[in-house]
Structures are given as C-alpha cells and as structure tokens.
Amino acid sequence: MTISFKALCPICQSVKLFACKDDFFSSRDELQAKDCPYGFCVTRERALAAVIRKEYKPDILIALKIHEAAPANRGMSIWLKKNCPRYIQSGYFPNKQFGDLIGNLRNENLESQTFLDGQFDLVIHLDVLEHLFQPFEALREIYRTLAPDGKCIFSVPTEHGLFDSIQVAFARADGTVEISGTPEYHGNPQDENARALVTWKYGYNLPLLISRETKFDVEVRRFQSRRASAAGFMTEIYILSK
Predict the structure, then answer these.
(1) Is residue 185 classed as helix, strand or coil in its secondary structure?
(2) Domains: count for the chain
(3) Is 22 part of a structural domain of the chain?
(4) How many H-runs (helices) and E-runs (strands) does the chain carry?
(5) In whole angstroms, what is the distance from residue 72 CA to residue 41 CA?
(6) Residue 191: CB partners within 8 Å, gap ≥ 6?
(7) Tell me, what DSSP letter sits at residue 27?
(8) Are 102 and 93 in contact (CB under 8 A)?
(9) Does 192 reside within a domain?
C-alpha cells in the first residue's frame, strides 16, 4: 500500500510531501520527503523531534543546555546545532583522550562520562543504547549529568514479539568480545565505512529495567502518525525524567 501525504515536519517546521511504498514495514527508514532541507531525515528522527517539541516551547528549547550522543549529520541534529547555542555533540573514540574535542565531537565514553554533575537540561540519542555493553551504567551517568527536572529522550529499537531484553554481546576483561548467536551490525554515524556491533536486543520490559536500574521515571511513546510524519515498527521514543 503506497502512501503519500502532506504534513508539517516536526524538525524543519515546514509542510512537506512524504511518501513511502507502504505504511508500516518500510516506513521506519524510507518514509521521507524528497525536498527535505535536513539531509533526508527518517521516521525515528521526526518522532524524537515531535516529542521534544511537545515537551518544550520554542523559546525554552533554544535556551536549553543539550547533549546529543552519536549524532547523525541530518535531521534534528542539524536543526539543534543551528538553533541551540548551548548544544553539545559527543562521539566515541576509545583510542583518544576522553573529554577532548575530536573535530566537532567531544570524546565521551557514555558509560563513564567526563561531564560535570547537573550540566545539561536535555540529553538525546538515537539508536545508541543497543550498541553499549553497559547501557544502564550509561543511563545512570546521564542521570548524573542532568540538572533537576532534566530529561533524557531517545530512540532504541524495541523488538516486536520480544518481552525480555537480552544481551547478545559481552566485553571481557581481556579486551575481547563474546557474541551470542549471529552477530548483527548497524551503521556508524562517526564513520560511514565502520559498523557498530549490536550488543542488546531490547524487548517490552525495557522501561521496567530502566526504572529498576536507574532513578529515572520512564514514559514510552510509539508513533503511527501522519501528523508527526512518523510511522512503522520500532518507532518508540523513550522519555526519562529526573
């Protein structure tokens, strides 16, 4: 079922014509507008933007201290960089000094960050948590770096039909990685020639795990929304409140 519709893009705030070959299975990655001014953003980026714009009025948003981990050079990442003067991007370069700038990215290990306590109002990341060996340690670190009433808003693939989240790759003390089952890799926004190993498969119980492992309050929103130009599977956006 081919779909085509006009909607106000939650990123650029302009009416665009969105199209895709179906309204679900292809929509996560292929529902796009041909004249997108922000690098052909995809569904999860617009879903994240829709949530951010519901949580913060425009004048508040542009004044926030924001940290985005592993940004892609498109979508909401570009908009935030252009419009929010206190927006910081971080990447992961394990062979470099943490806390230093590598190009435009601050080098950070999300599981052991160099940021100060209470430094940010908002922390965001898109499809990052499934590549961390210790995701809940990273979320505890994010909690530490957030100011009172701060939020962490992110997307992560939530496997349909899976209840219990499963770790599928493990970092050993000797530096090796043990993989359970067939290894899976995703793209790496820092290097288009590199691949990022999937370490966790997240299921329906992820909000429960987050609430048990951290001090965050957890909310999840799923999108099948033409108004937000966001549709398909794995469109969950997690909202963690301090």
Answers:
(1) strand
(2) 1
(3) no
(4) 6, 17
(5) 10
(6) none
(7) H
(8) yes
(9) yes
Please tell me the number of Cα atoms within 13 Å of 145 on its side-chain side: 25
CA pair distance 54, 50, nearest whole angstrom: 6
To which residue do tokens 């908009």 refer? 79
Pair 61, 84: CB distance under 8 Å: yes
Give, in order, the Cα–Cα distances in Å from 153 to each of 16, 129, 212. Answer: 25, 12, 18
Helix residue spans in 31-177 (DSSP H) = 43-55, 58-61, 75-83, 135-145
Task: Give the CATH number for residue 137.
Answer: 3.40.50.150
Residue range 169-197, pLDDT digits in tens? 999 999 899 999 999 999 888 777 888 99
**Residue 36 in domain:** no
Structural domain boundaries enclosing 206: 42-241
Q: What is the pLDDT of residue 33?
A: 93
List, in sequence order, every residue forming a beta bridge with 223; answer none if it has no partner: none
Instruction: Quick: pLDDT tens for 66-75.
Output: 999 999 989 9
Report if residue 6 sits inside a domain.
Answer: no
Give me the mean pLDDT over the 212-241 stretch: 96
Q: Is residue 234 within a helix (H) or strand (E), and if so which, with residue range?
A: none
- Give the residue from 202, 73, 181 showing the smallest Cα distance to 132: 202
